[in-house]
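Box 3.1. Reading complex inputs
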Amino acid sequence: MHLLLVEDDAMLGEAVCDGARQGGWTIDHVCDAPAARLALIDHAYAAVLLDIGLPGESGLSVLRAMRGRYDPTPVLMLTARGQLSERIHGLDAGADDYIVKPFQFDELWARVRSVIRRSQGRVIPVFSHGDIEVDRSRRVVSKAGVEVTLSAHEYRTLLALLERPGHVVTRDHLQDAVYGSASAVESNTIAVFIHQLRRKLGDDLIRTVHGHGYVVGQPRP
Amino acid sequence: MHLLLVEDDAMLGEAVCDGARQGGWTIDHVCDAPAARLALIDHAYAAVLLDIGLPGESGLSVLRAMRGRYDPTPVLMLTARGQLSERIHGLDAGADDYIVKPFQFDELWARVRSVIRRSQGRVIPVFSHGDIEVDRSRRVVSKAGVEVTLSAHEYRTLLALLERPGHVVTRDHLQDAVYGSASAVESNTIAVFIHQLRRKLGDDLIRTVHGHGYVVGQPRP
DNA sequence: CTCGGGCTTAAAGAGATATTAAAAACTCTG
DNA sequence: CAGAGTTTTTAATATCTCTTTAAGCCCGAG
């Protein structure tokens, strides 16, 4: 079981990571919202432990982005004492539970187990389109049952497209998905990734919409 | 039959070890949770005698870690009188039985025999992948029926990989598996162990996933 | 037909991983 | 307790993969 911890306090973060590993989980730790975004694109986690009070971009916006693209991964908010409105906003935005800092670790793990258990009914998404399948929990992509290896950037590009089948995804959006919103790249990297994806997965999967971007999905009538 | 005793009280520990040897068992004795973790990775024991009230990290977390990775080794908790909640948590976390300190040795051995007998039905895992076999109870690895000798660190690295076939295991996770969570090593030790494993077991077993870690492929169906 | 966006390619630059070999730390044995 | 043999760590180098760049070609829209 893979968890994601989004927490800027290094001490607390380390402690939570240790605890998680002792509990038999594996856990990734990121310190800010942009990193969290990228991690969530890369993997399907069993649950996310999300500090709301992040420096810069708030944890809430990460949560909103997740729910905006129908990512059902359970989210447990970590909030500071007294921030009642944060909690309300969080639950409103689709968090599954919250715990107030400072907390007992035992309680934290109990809540994590609880949100995971409650989410068992939900399906962990395995994107598929035609003979292409993406298992996000293993980070494995296959075509006609044969495993295909993708680089990190190729994988992120593909996921960003598969998340909205039938919708045109702009180059800018893809750039965000690959590099985070602080996109500092020039040149035609996205075009190159698209080209690699087509080479590895076949020309039919990704259609280009001239002047707009790319689509995965049924040809529009 | 091999037992593991996790107990910080030196006197009691010695006494239990003596008793076990007289009873025809062999027994390893460790004094804290991290040591217990490592011992459990190294060997498959017939049973674990686990003191819950350890200094530092609780015995419960050891138990949870075991069950978290589906280690079916029977666990007999040693608890102090009156710690009812500990006992409940322990059984909850997957302990097989408990005994209250101070105890009669006769009763202890009766309970040990009992949990071992009850566990006979369970399967002691023998990992295998292709022509590679790992017998955890004997700590023996063989390739195509020929025994291969691995050093302690190589063995731990291999087990950490085999525990999640088909999943990418990060370098950090391997580091934890080899050194415990207080990983204080620099340099590329993990890379070296992987290299040795490939040399001894063949290049096909462990695949590297660039930027993520290593995978042992799913056993061919 | 022309223009601009899109595609393809190859190669340089980064970054990650593999491979060594030797030093340091253990272990075992006499 | 010393010395031989092993394991573990370090570190430097080599190799490989991924990423980015840039230049030229192709194609669609107007």
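In summary: Residues 151-154, 185-189, 192-193, 210-211 of chain A lie near DNA strand D (CB under 10 Å from a C1').
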